[in-house]
């Protein structure tokens, strides 16, 4: 490793040591019982709740996946995806946050999302809780793998050798598991607050410096003018190889005389735009965000949290898209595959900042990945330990045993995530889109129906969560490959089908008991 790489690593190492120190500090405050370890005793302030929710949500996808899409095919897909996510963030905080905070406490003080569903429907056999916990296990394990891919790409780039990919995937996993195991929910939320602030600072710094180097608006427009449909939000650029064929998979875009080759471009159809906007539906089913709603100190803090979260999200998303476009203007022929395009943030950082400062800026990517992977590990461990182990297998399990099961689960999920990351250096954007759809379609409709329709029944809830998750898998692996109208993002049809299943089965089954109805009505009027 050369001197530049060493200095960059020092900057990043400083950040990593600080995150582990936070974990050690909160280890003293979060290990007394499961409610503290998994929910922080519902004590999050507005800033911590807002920024930790958004940081845990965005992941390395924000600084690598989204700019990579904008760099490779232009503004169309990236822009509409950002619109969908920004809108979904606002609606989720506006509609879901207050009701879930209240209802989760009314429903026998539920401390996890599966726990809430089970208590909400008085599921004494824990069928719904079990299904929800298994869905979380499957899709969040995939999510964790996506974050470890980010670690591998980041450090592989810094060291300038693909050989470091495996080592750095494992190292990143070890660091995250260390402070998550030690400090639990409070450590995760406090590190996510720090990481969220670092993420937005890093992305705005890179955007500002890149914008100046590209020559401002006129310079960026001039550089991108020769790439058909690249800046057209209703179109999409089409990179081509040397034969003129469209680039897909691991194929590389042709570059002639330093200039990348593009086809004539294509219209970004209404169906494509709808697919991108559908990303916003995923928020209603994201446990790592919903659990922050449950953990806010009081419902009176939600309005302030909402403003902070929406502003953070809006700025971050559109800055990320802009970085991809500016990166193509400055380095038009540098990155020729979809996978390599996701390193454009790294190239801009290394080229325009001194090595030590670049290390701190690149820590924004570490922050993005760590703030997500720690949340995912904690969500999975709580689902397995509190919901499956205690709820299904050992109802008399003590608090100490539950927390040990949670820690063992974290270790196993970490190992699985490393295996996913090492199975192939895949596109972060595509891995995340699959897991996002699975969680959004499984839990999103059920969350909305649980909170806002008192006629929802336990059979309807079970049918909804199963149909949403299964439809995502079938649509992704089979139906979507038919193309045409079936090429829509799998989250949209799965979400609709889940809603229909919940509605139809609930109407066709015995109405909820008077006790459930009374709890529903109490949740509408209570304040905590």
The CATH topology is what? Answer: Sodium/glucose cotransporter
Assign the CATH architecture.
Answer: Up-down Bundle
Give the beta-strand count. Answer: 4
CATH-wise, what's the superfamily? Sodium/glucose cotransporter
**Neighbour order of strands in the largest sheet:** 1-4
Tell me the domain tally: 1
Anisotropy-based shape:
globular
Average pLDDT works out at 83
Per CATH, the class reads Mainly Alpha
Describe this entry's structure for a reader:
The structure is a single chain. The protein has 528 residues and is mainly alpha-helical. The chain has a single domain (3-525), classed as Sodium/glucose cotransporter. Helices cover 73% and strands 2% of the residues. Strands 1-4 form a two-stranded antiparallel sheet. A two-stranded antiparallel sheet has the order 2-3. Helix 1 (3-27) packs across helix 8, helix 7 runs antiparallel to helix 15 and helix 14 (344-352) runs antiparallel to helix 15. The protein is globular, with a radius of gyration of 23 Å. The mean pLDDT is 83.
């Amino acid at each position: 490793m050369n001197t530049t790489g060493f200095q960059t690593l020092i900057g990043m190492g400083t950040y990593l040591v600080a995150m582990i120190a936070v974990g050690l500090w909160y280890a003293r405050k979060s290990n007394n019982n499961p409610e503290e370890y998994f929910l922080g005793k519902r004590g999050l302030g507005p800033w911590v709740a807002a920024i930790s929710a958004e940081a845990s949500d965005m992941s390395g996808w924000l600084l690598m996946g989204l700019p990579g899409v904008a760099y490779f095919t232009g503004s169309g897909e990236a822009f509409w995806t950002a619109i969908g996510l920004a809108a979904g963030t606002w609606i989720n905080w506006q509609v879901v946050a207050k009701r879930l905070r209240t209802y989760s406490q009314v429903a026998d003080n539920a401390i996890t999302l599966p726990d809430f569903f089970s208590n909400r429907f008085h599921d004494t056999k824990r069928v719904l809780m079990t299904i929800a916990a298994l869905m979380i296990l499957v899709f969040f394990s995939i999510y964790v793998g996506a974050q470890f891919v980010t670690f591998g790409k980041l450090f592989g780039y810094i060291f300038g050798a693909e050989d470091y990919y495996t080592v750095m995937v494992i190292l990143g996993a070890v660091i995250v598991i260390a402070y998550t195991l030690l400090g639990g929910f409070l450590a995760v939320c406090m590190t996510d607050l720090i990481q969220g602030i670092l993420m937005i600072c890093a992305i705005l710094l890179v955007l500002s410096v890149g914008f100046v180097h590209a020559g401002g608006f006129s310079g960026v427009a001039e550089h991108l003018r020769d790439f058909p449909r690249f800046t057209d939000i209703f179109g999409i650029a089409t990179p081509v190889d040397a034969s003129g064929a469209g680039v897909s998979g691991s194929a590389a875009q042709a570059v002639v005389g330093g200039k990348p080759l593009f086809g004539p471009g294509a219209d970004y159809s209404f169906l494509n735009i709808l697919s991108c906007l559908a990303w916003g539906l995923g928020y209603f089913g994201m446990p790592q965000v919903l659990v922050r709603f449950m953990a806010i100190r009081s419902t009176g803090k939600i309005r302030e949290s909402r403003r902070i979260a929406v502003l953070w999200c809006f700025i971050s998303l559109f800055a990320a898209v802009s970085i991809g476009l500016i990166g193509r203007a400055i380095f038009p022929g540098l990155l020729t595959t979809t996978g390599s395009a996701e390193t454009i943030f790294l190239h801009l950082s290394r080229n325009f900042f001194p090595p030590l400062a670049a290390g701190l800026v690149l820590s924004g990517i570490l922050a993005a990945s760590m703030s997500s992977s720690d949340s995912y590990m904690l969500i999975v461990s709580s689902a397995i330990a509190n919901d499956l182990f205690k709820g299904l297998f050992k109802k008399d399990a003590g608090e100490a045993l539950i927390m040990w099961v949670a820690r063992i689960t974290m270790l196993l999920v970490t190992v699985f995530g490393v295996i996913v990351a090492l199975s192939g250096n895949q596109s972060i954007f595509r891995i995340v889109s699959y897991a996002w759809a699975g969680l959004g379609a499984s839990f999103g409709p059920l969350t909305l129906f649980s909170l806002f329709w008192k006629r929802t029944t336990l059979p309807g809830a079970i049918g909804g969560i199963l149909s949403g998750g299964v439809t995502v898998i079938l649509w992704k692996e089979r139906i979507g490959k038919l193309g045409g109208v079936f090429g829509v993002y799998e989250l949209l049809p799965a979400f609709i089908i889940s809603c229909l299943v919940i509605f139809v089965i609930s109407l066709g089954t015995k109405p909820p008991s008077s006790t459930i109805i009374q709890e529903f009505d109490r949740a509408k009027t209570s304040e905590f």
